[in-house]
Amino acid sequence: MKKIFILVVIVLIGSCNFNTQMEEARGMEKRRLYLIRHAKSSHKDVSLADFDRPLNDRGKSDTKLIGAELVKRGIVWDKLIISPSKRTKSTAKRLAKALRFERDSIRQDMALYRCKTQALIRTIQDLDPQDKAVAIIGHNPSIIQAANHFQKDTIFTEIPTCGLVVIEFESNGWKYLGNKSGNYLFFDYPKKYKAKKQKSQRSSVAN
């Protein structure tokens, strides 16, 4: 009788675990993370603190270029979280304008300015599960390290200014994202498109 009771308990536990796994599987959804480094900033005014440095002309033109490419790709963000530095806020404002993202919905997080990778990872894991596409605009080295942490397909040693790495996950919540749990989707940066434009112009002249 005791053996039968133990067997029944084991079967019930197994059934509960199976049901839990099935519920978790049903809750799986695709999520996209956009890790973006701020655009090029100015060092012209040496009296300014690092936090207060604005974008230079190249930074402004790069945000316009990348913003246009994101629009071409049909990118839509549910949330945008940024470092509160001046250059990051300017980058966010310009990209948000291109994507028609509500500026009032931009969230600032001082932890992103301090460039602590674990703090950035926690910020991502604490995201609302209702948000499926989230952009983070911050600084190196934490942007590079987070990109390498969340996916294993590509190892990044440098992400240039206004560059972005996009990683896709299949999960029922951001809190479940861990080391190498995502899939690398694409890497965009301004010079890639500038090189294409220059090549196209040379080809037109040659013809």
Total DSSP E strands: 6
Helical stretch tally: 7
Tell me what portion of residues adopts beta-strand conformation: 15-25%
Can you tell me the residue ranges where pLDDT is under 50 for at least 5 consecutive residues?
A: 5-13, 18-25
Share of helix, binned: 40-55%
Largest sheet: 6 strands, mixed
Task: Give me the secondary-structure category.
Answer: alpha/beta
Could you give the distance between the termini? Answer: 91 Å
Q: How much is the radius of gyration in Å? A: 22 Å
Q: Sketch the topology as an H/E string, one letter per element.
A: HEHEHEHHEHEEH
Strand order of the largest sheet: 3-2-4-1-5-6
Mean pLDDT: 88
- Overall geometry comes to globular
Protein name: Histidine phosphatase family protein
InterPro entries: His_Pase_superF_clade-1, His_PPase_superfam
Question: Could you explain how this protein is built, in words?
Answer:
About 8% of the residues have low confidence. Helix 3 links the parallel strand 2 and strand 3. The chain contains 7 helices and 6 strands, in the order H-E-H-E-H-E-H-H-E-H-E-E-H. The chain has 207 residues and is an alpha/beta fold. It comes from Aureispira anguillae. This is Histidine phosphatase family protein.
Brief characterization of the structure:
By secondary structure, the chain is α/β, with parallel strands linked by helices. It has helices spanning 2-26, 57-72, 86-99, 110-113, 117-125, 142-150, 190-206; strands at residues 29-37, 79-82, 106-108, 133-138, 164-171, 183-188. This is Histidine phosphatase family protein.
